[in-house]
Design a protein that fits this description.
Layout: H1 23-32, E1 47-48, H2 60-68, H3 77-90, E2 94-98, H4 101-112, E3 118-121, H5 126-134, E4 138-141, H6 162-172, E5 177-183, H7 196-209, E6 213-216, H8 220-230, H9 239-249, E7 252-256, E8 267-271, H10 274-287, H11 298-310, H12 314-334, E9 346-350, H13 351-354, H14 364-376, E10 378-379, E11 381-383, H15 385-388, E12 390-391, E13 397-398, E14 404-408, H16 416-430, E15 439-443, H17 449-452, E16 454-457, H18 458-462
Bound molecules: ligand F0G.
């Protein structure tokens, strides 16, 4: 018998209580959090879709590995296991453990960045951009045009526009290009995959001009699923072999282990080039820890080594991608405008289309994020003008390209009925959506403002 239902390929051994709050309670919690869900307490949340990062449920094998963790300062066996797992997967000889992805970004991008340098990416993730700009360099996003249109169906919307890459190399000079970063999958661009063909083309350009090519590879297993199922010539390859092929095209990678290594903390930088690796390693020892643990405990490294194996399990990846598709299809059937086709770790709702009456200066994504929390206790993240908006010289907002809201699905955490509940919440939001008001920012920090900015509802201002 052939089953249509893709079941969760695991049993639940330990559970975590969810506190079921009322709408009235949530109204108060949200007000106290200044309408920024990052400022809510986790026990005020029913379904937490803020991020898929560091929120995975670990397997019994990983917990067993945690007991085996070797906490020696130097040369721990857990480090050797993690190093071997990373080396085997990526092929890069120089591996540096870090406490998470952005620490790896900081090590590398502050070495190769600086004033007058340029980075080109399909889309820089917010911490990537922040690290690059912090170094004084410029980060330029060059997604393919299809990647900027939420309603358009394209198999590899995460691809980098190679024509734009060439134009930028010509304009700024190859010698001023610090690196090209391919983010797989393209998180800020909607969790969309990158094809092997695109990675090959980017690799060829980088080789020709002598530019460093880095993969931001934290969701590369999910990306491999899309390549296997959508790109000709990959049907017979394993997910792992597909990922290995992509790694072989680049000079190194940044990896936040909080995603596809299925752990709650950790990351690494891995490079081909010894000289660059030595420069990064010196800073690693000053800022993160000795080179055989970075910012990690032995048990963390043990869990990463195991997670990097488990994530390529075919049943797991099938379930993982299907669970995103399941929610996406339900929302689409209801008429909720979502980014198509759904990506690998999240469903992205087009808030501009959901609330066409709210202009970007009044942050339609933030309005949707707040409504989802109020009505369903669902926490999620705005990926639009709150996260990426900038101001011009006159202090006017330069809006982001898209106003998206990300429903990021933690790995192995929620079941199908949780997803049904999320869909039901949306059906409630569809009614009466014309009456929802936008927001104004009342305070914000200079970098990564979405984490701590405070908002005021324009509905309250009008009253
Ligand atoms: N690169 C990408 C593509 C990411 O998605 C993230 C984190 C990082 C780098 C930084 O890694 O968090 O371990 O320091 N993304 C999280 C998210 C925060 O919610 O998407 P980190």
């Amino acid at each position: 018998m052939k089953f249509r239902t893709v079941i969760e390929p695991f049993r639940i051994k330990s559970v975590e209580r969810i506190r079921l709050t009322t709408e009235e309670e949530r109204r108060e919690f949200l007000h106290r959090a200044h309408y920024n869900p990052f400022l809510l307490h986790s026990d005020q949340v029913i379904i937490d879709l803020l991020t898929d990062s560091g929120t995975s449920a670990m397997s019994s094998e990983q917990w067993a590995g945690i007991m085996r963790g070797d906490e020696s300062y130097a040369g721990a066996s857990s480090w050797r296991r993690m190093e071997a797992a990373v080396h085997d997967l990526t092929g890069y000889p120089y591996v540096m453990p870090t406490h998470q992805g952005r620490a790896a970004e900081h090590l590398l991008y502050t070495r190769i960045g600086g004033k007058g340098k340029y980075f080109i990416s399909n889309t820089h993730f917010d911490t990537t951009r922040a690290n690059i700009e912090f170094s004084g360099a410029t980060a330029i996003d060059c997604p393919i045009p299809e990647g900027r249109r939420p309603e358009l169906v394209h198999p590899f919307k995460g691809n980098l526009d190679t024509q734009q890459l060439l134009t930028n190399i010509e304009k700024h000079g190859a010698e001023n290009m610090a690196a090209v970063i391919l983010t797989v999958t393209n998180n800020s661009g909607g969790g969309q995959p990158v094809s092997m063909e695109n990675a090959r083309a980017v690799s060829a350009i980088c080789k020709k001009y002598g530019i460093l090519f880095i993969l931001d590879a934290c969701r590369i297993a999910e990306n491999a699923w899309f390549i296997k199922h959508r790109e000709p010539g990959f049907r017979e390859k394993t997910y792992r072999a597909i990922a290995q092929e992509m790694f072989s095209l680049a000079d190194g990678c940044i990896f936040s282990a909080k995603k596809d290594a299925l752990v709650n903390i950790g990351g690494f930088l891995a490079l081909n080039n010894l000289e660059l690796a030595l420069q990064c390693r010196s800073v690693l020892i000053i800022t993160e820890g000795y080179s055989t643990y970075g910012g990690l405990s032995g048990r963390d490294m043990e869990a990463i080594a195991i997670g990097l194996e488990e994530v390529f399990d075919a049943d797991y990846l099938e379930y993982r991608i299907r669970s995103i598709g399941y929610l996406a299809e339900k929302l689409q059937e209801m008429g909720v405008p979502i980014m198509l086709p759904p990506g690998g770790h999240a469903v992205y709702v087009d808030a501009k289309a959901f609330y066409p009456h709210i202009p970007p200066e009044e942050y339609p994504g933030q309005a949707l994020v707040c409504e989802l929390y109020l009505k369903g206790g669902i926490r999620c993240c705005e990926i639009g003008s709150v996260m990426f908006g900038k101001y011009d010289e006159a202090g006017m907002l330069i809006p982001a390209q898209m106003e998206l809201v990300r429903l990021a699905i933690p790995r192995r955490v929620y079941t199908q009925s949780h997803m049904d509940y999320v869909a039901e919440t949306f059906s409630g939001l569809l009614e009466g959506r014309g009456a929802v008001a936008g927001f104004r920012i009342t305070s914000e920090p200079p970098f990564l403002r979405h984490f701590t900015a405070r908002f005021e509802s324009l509905a309250e201002v009008c009253v």
